[in-house]
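Predict the structure of Pyridoxamine 5'-phosphate oxidase putative domain-containing protein.
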Amino acid sequence: MISEQQWQSAKSVCKASLFSSLHYAIASVDENGSPHLTPIGSLMLGTLTNGQAQACYFERFTKQLPSNAKHNTNVCILAVNSSKWFWFQSLLKGQFLHQPAVRLAGQLGPLRLATDEEIQRWQRRVRLLRFTKGHRLMWQSMRHVRDITITEVKAVNIGKMTR
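Done. Here is the predicted structure for Pyridoxamine 5'-phosphate oxidase putative domain-containing protein.
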């Protein structure tokens, strides 16, 4: 069960992670039991209800992740604040003032059409790049999302520097 404090802390780490590295890593397992990591930049965290949190991501470029979801919906999302300035300050002080990373465990839901609100939220996230050719090629027509039910938030402990 996820507490409101855990969820708010996880959302803060995820925001810093996206700002510093532009993606999250989503781990899944293939039909042979081998792990697979997928970088996802479109993960959008949602609300916490009854100890479970909701999230979704636009599924456009992934190949292995949807294939793995056919037989095992369990995933683990890793978000790391990769900001050089954050790490430099933390190393100078000998401790992290904020949580440096978080793991979110959960289950993938079925692929579905994105709502207008989700599309607008995504477009707001990438609006600064809307004039680029890359935006038109990659992000202009994002239409399908996959929900994730987050069932556990796990803080990443990095030795004595972690509170």
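The helical segments are 4-21, 64-69, 84-93, 116-125, 133-138.
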